[in-house]
Amino acid sequence: MSRKTLPIIIILAMAITAGAAFAQIDTTAEIPDSTIAVTAVSQRLPIAPAPVSSVTAKDTPNDAGKSITINWDLSPDDLGGRKNVAKYIVLRGTSPTGTFDTVGSATAGMHSVSDAQAVDGVDYVYKVVAISSVLTPEGDEIFAPAESGLSNVVHSSGQWFHLVRMARIFPWVLVIGIAVLFFINAAKKGKKLYVRPIAGLVEVEQAVGRATEMGRKLVYVPGTQDMDNVQTLAGVTILGRIAKLAAEYDAQIDVPVSRSLVMVTAREVVKEAYLNVGRPDAFNEDIVRYITDDQFGYAAALDGLFVREKPATIFYMGAFYAESLILAETGNTIGAIQIAGTAMPAQLPFFVAACDYTLIGEELFAASAYLSSEAKLLGSLKGQDVAKVLMLIVAVVGVILATFNVINIADWFKIG
Amino acid sequence: MNKKVVPFIVIALGIGLFAILAASRGFAVTLGAFFTIGIFSFLYKDNPYYKFSEALFVGISAGYWFVSLFWQQMYSKLFSQVAEAYQHTFVNGGGWDDRWMMLVGGVLGVMMLMRLFPKIGWISRWPLAVIVGATAGLYFINYFVSNGINQIGATIAPLQQYGKDGSLDWWASISQFLLVVGTLSGLVYFYFSKEHKGAFGGVAKIGIWTLMLTFGASFGYTVMSRMSLLIGRMDYLVSTWLGLVK
């Protein structure tokens, strides 16, 4: 064989092989959107299962819309009969005679699917195709479909209220609300409401005093998240109290922030604190200054600030991510007293390791009430304590009942 | 040699080295490596190289975020949405469009800018009040469900757990017992109306121990993820930049 003919033979052989492989391709392996077709490979064709019945479609309840739930009665050949159902395909159309697109699938034994791609207000009809399949010796999968009748016409819409959530949460909210109002009222009438000492907060005054005595700055970091985070809200509230102390002691306070909205809010809070102690002259808008929104850009700037200005005290109060250890470790190396508070579980270990005091989780939210002793905040804190006692009792009773196999009330806490 | 000349020589050598590496490894890659080393130099001590890298990082990121927020918020959520609503309502005659509601956010944003004018600066407090109030209200249910209801629901289960063969699963039972004790004692720790003394204090101590054990495990896990970040930067320097590791 000449060298020139060899490549031609190889190319021809490859072309024949490719052609043969192409001829073997089962065009029904992937179900087309509009129709289910079956290649006529009669000797290998699986037997189609009996179609499903009672296809119904309804707007998914208690949602924000754009979802329709389709239910059907299983094919008689699914769990019984020939037991040859491989899966169900759900098709959607806008009219009974128009084209239908695939919008979902379910494995054998399932009789419900949610179509999450619906457009609110548009009428749809659905049908469900029960499919059986067989594998050929070559490894190809061949399908045999059985189409159901049409469902009812339906369209999706959003609901204002999640009724299941309301039913399960409302009693709790009611009890907590009544308790909060009761304690707020009691506090306003002058009743002394006890809040246990929280280690980090007891030291706040000393920490501010230390900065004053040393003639160095105290830096307050209200986290790296925006005002739509409750931890930032708590952090800014605590800032009000610390700014008040700083104004009283004439300590130099610096609040570098990473969000413009936090800057605006923090400025208002600090300004009010200075006004409240009768020192509006000492307030300067630059006390609260914007650095950058970028997480690590902010961390780099604060690290530089710490080592250059060596603040005596650093507060970290709010929501933090990976920058927590970078900041706390640098603060630790310069010998600053550090008091941190966050409800970010992944960052708490770093603050616990690198800071002198750490407010863990809810202690951050309790801090503002503890520091300010305002009736509304204290009443709210006491009301939440009532909720905790109730939860504790329910949990203990629930575990006992479940252990002795009386009743399992865990389902009462499942929120849809 | 005059001491004043030394920094200039160092800078000149640095520029020369940078130029050689940029020519051989690519400008962008070398620039990335230059600033990576600049930030790492903080580990030695605060120095001009770090200060330069930090200032550039902060400045560029602030500018980047401004542009990014403009396109992600102002343009895509206000201008384009309102333009589409206008098209729907007035050009196509389609009636009310929910996207008109975006104008509420736009108006609040304009109100926020009023603080630039001292005489009417008080107006900027209104959008702040809306943000703070809406945040508190919206998150109340989310937090109550995730931190309260779901936790209690997950805790309520029989203390004795059985395996698939129906026999008592000792490890699963011990695990369930620890879960119940840890959750409930943790709840006691966060009760603020009573001092941690006596039996109550004992239970609270179990709670804080549970928390600390969790923090310890979390610390180790997160440190490992930070190590992977460090390895990523080292890989950039050694492989992508210097090409020492293929």
Structure explained in plain terms:
The complex is a heterodimer of chains A (416) and B (246). Chain A is α/β, with parallel strands linked by helices. Chain A folds into two domains: 28-147, Immunoglobulin-like, CATH 2.60.40; 193-373, Rossmann fold, CATH 3.40.50. Chain A is 41% helix and 19% strand. Chain A contains eleven helices and 13 strands. Chain A has helices at 5-24, 163-188, 199-202, 204-214, 230-249, 260-276, 295-309, 323-333, 348-354, 362-372, 375-403, and strands spanning 53-59, 68-73, 87-93, 101-107, 112-115, 125-135, 141-147, 217-221, 252-257, 288-290, 313-317, 337-342, 357-360. In chain A, helix 5 (230-249) packs parallel to helix 6 and helix 5 (230-249) packs parallel to helix 10. Chain A is elongated and about 90 Å long. The model of chain A is unreliable at 20-42 (pLDDT under 50). Chain B is an all-alpha fold. Chain B has a domain at 158-241. Chain B contains seven helices and no strands. In chain B, helix 2 packs across helix 3. The longest helix of chain B is centred in the first third of the chain and has 44 residues, at 48-91. The two termini of chain B are 42 Å apart. At the A-B interface, helix 2, helix 6, helix 7, helix 9 and helix 10 of A face helix 3, helix 5, helix 6 and helix 7 of B.
